[in-house]
Amino acid sequence: MQSLMIVLLGIAGMTFGWFVYSKFIATKIYQLDPDFVTPANEFNDGVDFVPTNKYVLWGHHFTSVAGAAPIVGPAIAVYWGWVPAVLWVTIGTVFFAGVHDFGALWASSRHKGKSIGALSEDVIGKRTRALFMVVIFLVLLMVNAVFGVVIAGAFVNTPNAVFPAWSAIAVALVIGQLIHRNVNLTLLSVVGVTALYFSIYVGSVMPIELPANMFGLTANANWIIILFIYAAIASMLPVWVLLQPRDFINGLQLFVGLFLLYGAVVLSLPDISAPAFNNNMAEDAPSLVPLLFVTIACGAVSGFHGIVASGTSSKQLNKETDARFVGYFAALGEGSLALITIVAVSGAALAATPEIWHQIYDKYGSAGAGTFIQGGAQMITNGWGLPVGISTTLLATMVALFAGTTMDSGVRLQRYIIQEWGDIYNIALFKKGVFATLLAVTCCLLLAFGAGGASGAGGLSIWPLFGSTNQILAGMTLLVLSVMLIKMGRPARYTIIPMVFVLITSCWAAILKLMEFWVAGNWLLVTIDIIVLVTSFMVILEAVSVIAKFRKTNAK
User: Fold this and answer.
1) What pLDDT is stored for residue 241 in this prediction?
2) Domain residue spans in the chain?
3) Which listed site, 263, 388, 469, 530, has its alpha carbon 20 to 30 Å from 29?
4) 124: buried, middle or exposed (CB in 10 Å: 19+, 13-18, 0-12)?
5) Residue 458: Cβ-neighbour burial (10 angstroms; 0-12, 13-18, 19+)
6) In degrees, to the nearest 5, what angle opens at C-alpha 350 toward C-alphas 378 and 456?
7) What is the CATH number of domain 2-425?
8) pLDDT tens sequence across 29-50
9) 39 beta partners
10) Distances in Å between the alpha carbon of 180 and those of 50, 183, 188?
11) In which residue ranges of the chain is pLDDT below 70?
């Protein structure tokens, strides 16, 4: 019964966010103009700039930003108890993530579809752009490396998910061609989701496994390499061929998954085994503040969302007024995924008693995507009566598909940044799409195996650094939005307040992790952490200087 109260609390907050707060932000702060000519229409090239139906674009944006992070982060953060996790997800989604994602999409659309790093030059200054893009590249590097490791682990641990995960690509290629020929979207939705769920059934009875050792590498390592080969190819295709239809189908699949999970709560009313506040933590457990606010990034607020919003979604926005639906509503969708993850890993479906729950959560980081799959699958089985094998395959496929679509977009965005560096510094080789993609993928593989060892299995050691860096980037994006609003003479407190909170907690967490990495002698992560902290501090100083000069000039 407690689980139902958690769901009702979270949904009530998000309902307020959509019907009240987002409307206020859209009309009074961002002031959306239905007649504004968006970059998708101004620069329509049929490859990156493509005017897109807002529902299809929402599917792309949602599944690109969702990935595995709103599952992994909350599944880990419940270690401190379910109350802090639920409060941060609900408040963060409504007042932080929605404003951040919506704002990044709007700001990029107003600046010819430039990425948040590139448009920071127009808003703050030339030096800011170079610094900002370094942080963005590092975030993308960590996102792609981590998600490659997550998917590979899912394929190794749940081989039933392999067939449906790859079948979804074939389905998306067909759907993309039909959408491009203006076939009825509702019909395609039904056919696409039906094909996807049929493949899940096939996968549940036909597991696919790689040999334990192939080409001198483990199955996990081979899956990581295969995934990045795929991501490199996918990132160079026109967005309408694979990226848009795959994300659209995955978005519909998430709706079905969320329906099953939330429906299971209503039908079975599971009790909560996790404590409201965990007072039985390991001696070396990190403190709730500030680590909670970087452990749950996606699902509360995430800098990666701003990269996607300004990197790919703004180039497909047909009307400026669509930005509220695409940006803010996608944030609510991700928040709802994070919320049900908390229920799945806190309830009796995962652990019948508090004692068993404490055995699973014996230390910080002992849980993750696998815990969600296990708890969520049992919850669906208890509520709907589906065989546990099919429920497990369904959720494992969902995790793999979301992480995969994030990799597709992430590698594409890395390519954009490398090509932008080619333009800025006049490096001809960097401007070439194929070389830029190969360079991006090579960097991701080096980090995955550099941090994770020969098998790549230890790549999740990047997660704590990703969390703090990702949140620092969110704070920097809110900083750019704040400067932009101040220059436009509009109220900026709705972006400044979340910006200050996010920057303080994320920089604090990054410094704590830096000390841990230093003691452990992990010099790769020490170097990345220092670069992020120094460049972020310099961006903040640049922004403060610009605001001071602007106000001084206007005061005369």
Assistant:
1) 86
2) 2-425
3) 469
4) buried
5) middle
6) 95
7) 1.20.1740
8) 999 999 999 999 999 988 789 9
9) none
10) 11, 8, 12
11) 1, 452, 457-460, 555-556
